[in-house]
Design brief:
The protein is α+β, with helices and mostly antiparallel strands. Helix content is 28%, strand content 22%. The protein has a 9-stranded mixed sheet with strand order 23-24-25-27-26-28-29-30-31, sandwiched between helices. A hairpin with a 2-residue loop joins strand 16 and strand 17. Helix 7 runs antiparallel to helix 8. The two termini are 62 Å apart.
Length: 769
């Protein structure tokens, strides 16, 4: 960081004069003493230097009076001016440093470590022994060690510090290897290592802290990077080396606990792009049987080579990905990942390149290198705290794919781009009748990075792509290419006894005290008006809610009460962002949409000292009850609106609607819902251990209104056979189960028409003005 030479309130004219007078380069200094005196005299009144330093500049008359000895007088003036300026500069900066110590503490408490560290370095120039700064340094700074084989490599760091326009600082050269315990600001960086004659290395590094209130309860260990550089020409283009060794899967839905011995290998730095896949087609990839090394199995039947090739058709019935036309990818998408291809096509492309699809152990090793933390979510770039966003990190935008070389700050520990988001990726392993996928896509919630899915080999989707690995000639073993069974035990749940349920209900009583609701913010678009509302909720807290009102439709409006997925609960995005992203088609279809931010959302974060209670505790029950009260108070508010038809309120939940499953609970408690849609739902056996009054399984059998349950046949998060179907069996009539060929998130072209048709059936059609 640059050294602060002048305090901010020093007049720029004085800065300019003193800098010129003290310039190291003789040619840059004043050549005539009279010029210096004249400049000082000009800024006297404007800068207030006489008041600040006590030094009075000689007037023009005085200068003329002593003109006979002008060289001596000028020298005195120079010395006095320089001394006064230095004295002023020194004392001003000492005052500034003393006043700024508190700012460092404030920045540190807000985890703004880059800013805190830069400011602390400036303060140390003037207060080198300040005890507060010394105490803060372990929190706001990190020790960084880099060793390479061979040494002498240049090391660069680029901070994850975007400005308001999304621009990042330039990378900085910090030295050459070996670098030992170099002090740097705590934070997240892109690291680059370069040495002539060797392939460059690029990856992310991250140093973080965890807090309990203002107290830091954990600091990550000092950053250490050890790398064996690969000679230029020996590393395949656009691939990165991954160090082998024993590896055990650590993600949430891992299909095995068994470790695997991995050899060193190379993996694609980027997902395979449309441009690269076009090269496979142009080289006759679909015409050369030698690339297609695996038997073709569809719906339990083995296909011949000729039968299989007829399955791989683009929009014009030519052999290419399903979303291509005349064997050409969509315009402007050359560097986007290739999608809409089957596992068999991905495997054939890999063979064309002399590579293979990664095993799940290879993929996860390259994507996260065993990183796992029970307090916060782990992503490829490091620990991911609630309330942080994936902006600049990964593509979970819900809009579509982006270029494969996007999001450098989302790189994995081995330098792989987009292992989280953009597209989910085919892996080599077979599970049941399908093949495993990993990483999550642009259309998925962020937490699917930690889930493994499985799809039939002939399945294709615009959310599914791949990357390849290259095993070295001396590799031994299958690198974790084992096959997994889908024969998991299917749980059976029983509803509670009626007397037990009545006892549970007694905990959820609340008094309908005045809401004191206020509309605190509005936003108008051509299609709708959004109101941000606050009202009194559980335990006297003010609750935040959003109401979207469509234009050009007759009042009173039907309304959809929205329960977002876990990505909102865990702070990956706000409730408002989730509603903007997911619900626009329903607003444009003429229904109002309403969402309540319960405690823990970005809009209502828990206090800094919050610790999530275990679900078998009374404190957890209290949290669930308060959340249910806030949501029911939201229904109370809707009843006060003349522009809302309180007799036509529907409930819509994405996934389980937060780990507390409040959508299920409120739906069982409150009779004001007339319809219900849930997507990606499932019941888990471990819920049986939860405290009875907050166990969602005790509420499901009491949801009486019509219910549409939409689930993907290949759901990565709530598998159909073991979670979704057991949940559906618990539900009373009327109910309907709709299955689609997909994963956890239904395609919009399936979900929106089906949901609107269901609401038309259960609430009635909407009416235009």
């Amino acid at each position: 960081a640059p050294i602060k030479k002048f305090r901010r309130d020093v007049p720029p004219e004085l800065e300019k004069v003193v800098s010129r007078a003290l310039a190291k380069n003789k040619e840059e200094r004043y050549r005539e003493m009279e010029d210096l005196a004249e400049d000082l005299h000009k800024i006297r009144d404007k800068s207030g230097i006489e008041r600040r330093s006590g030094f009075v500049l000689p007037s023009a008359d005085t200068r003329r009076k002593f003109a006979w000895n002008y060289p001596a007088a000028a020298l005195i003036i120079l010395l006095l001016a320089s001394g006064a300026a230095w004295y002023y500069w020194r004392n001003a900066n000492l005052r500034w440093a003393e006043e700024s110590v508190g700012k460092v503490e404030e920045l540190a408490q807000n985890d703004k470590y880059f800013e805190a560290y830069d400011l602390a370095l400036q303060i140390e120039e003037y207060l080198p022994q300040n005890p507060v700064i010394a105490q803060l340094m372990p929190t706001i700074s990190d020790k960084f060690t880099v060793t390479t084989e061979p040494d002498g490599a240049r090391v660069f760091l680029k901070r994850f510090q975007p400005d308001d326009k999304g621009n990042f600082p330039e990378r900085q050269l910090i030295g050459t290897t070996p670098i030992n315990d170099l002090r740097i600001a705590r934070g997240q960086y892109v690291l680059a290592i370069e040495k002539d004659g060797y392939a460059p290395l690029e990856r992310t590094i991250s140093g973080t802290t965890n807090r309990l209130g203002t107290k830091v309860i954990r600091i990550t260990p000092p950053l250490r990077v050890e790398s064996k550089l690969v000679e230029a020409g020996k590393q395949p283009a656009n691939m990165v080396p991954v160090k082998g060794g024993e590896y055990k899967l650590v993600t949430w839905s891992r299909p095995t606990e068994s470790p695997v011995k991995l050899n060193d290998f190379f993996i694609d730095k980027y997902e395979v792009s449309n441009r690269e896949y076009k090269e496979f087609i142009n080289a006759g990839g679909y015409l050369k049987q030698e690339y297609w090394k695996f038997p073709f199995v569809k719906d339990g039947k083995t296909l011949t080579w000729e039968e299989a090739m007829r399955e791989f058709k683009d929009r014009t019935a030519l052999q290419a990905p399903r979303n291509w036309t005349s064997q050409n990818f969509p315009e402007g998408k050359a560097e986007h990942p290739v999608t809409d291809i089957t596992w068999y096509e991905a495997a054939a492309y890999a063979a064309f390149r002399g590579k293979s699809l990664p095993t799940i152990h290879q993929w996860e090793k390259a994507a996260r290198d065993g990183m796992r933390d029970f307090l916060v979510v782990t992503m490829p770039w490091g620990l991911f705290k609630p309330g942080e966003a994936t902006d600049f990190r990964a593509n979970f935008n819900g809009i579509g794919t982006t270029a494969v070389n996007s999001f450098e700050f989302g790189m994995s520990p081995y330098g792989c781009y987009n292992t989280a988001g953009n597209v989910s990726e085919w892996c080599q392993n077979k599970r049941g009748d399908g093949f495993i996928t990993s990483g999550g896509s642009w259309a998925d919630p962020v937490y699917l990075f930690g889930q493994y899915g499985s799809y039939p080999g002939f399945y294709s989707s615009n959310k599914l792509g791949f990357r390849c690995v290259l095993n070295l000639p001396d590799a031994v073993g299958d690198q974790g290419a084992m096959q997994f069974s889908e024969e998991d035990e299917i749980p059976v749940f029983s509803p509670p006894k009626e007397a037990d349920f009545k006892a549970i209900l007694s905990h959820y009583h609340y008094d309908k005290t005045p809401l004191e609701a206020e509309i605190v913010e509005t936003k108008e678009t051509d299609e709708w008006r959004r109101e941000k509302i606050t009202f009194n909720g559980a335990e006297g807290e003010r609750v935040i809610a959003y109401l979207y009102l469509p234009k050009n439709y007759a009042r009173p409006l039907q309304v959809i009460h929205f329960y977002p997925a876990d990505d909102v609960w865990f702070g990956f995005r706000s409730l408002q962002d989730s509603m903007d992203l997911a619900l626009s088609p329903f607003i444009k279809s003429g229904r109002a949409v309403f969402g309540v931010a319960v405690k823990g959302y970005v809009e209502r974060r828990h206090p800094p000292n919050y610790k999530r209670p275990e679900p078998n505790t009374v404190e957890y029950r209290r949290q669930v009850i308060n959340g249910a009260i806030d949501l029911r108070r939201g229904l109370d508010y809707l009843e006060t609106r003349s522009d809302i038809d309180a007799g036509k309120i529907a409930m819509m939940s994405f996934s389980n609607g937060s780990p507390m499953m409040l959508g299920w609970i409120v739906s069982a408690l409150d009779s004001r819902y007339r319809s219900m849609i849930i997507t990606g739902i499932g019941a888990r056996p471990n819920w049986a251990k939860w405290i009875a009054e907050a166990n969602p399984l005790n509420f499901v059998s009491h949801i009486r209104h019509p219910k549409l349950i939409m689930n993907g046949r290949y759901d990565e998060s709530t598998p159909l056979k073991t979670e979704a179907e057991p949940f559906f069996k618990l539900l009373p009539e009327p109910k309907r189960l709709m299955l689609y060929d997909g994963g956890h998130v239904p395609p919009i072209e399936i979900f929106v028409p089906a949901a609107n048709a269901w609401f038309d059936e259960t609430l009635g059609a909407v009416k235009r003005e």
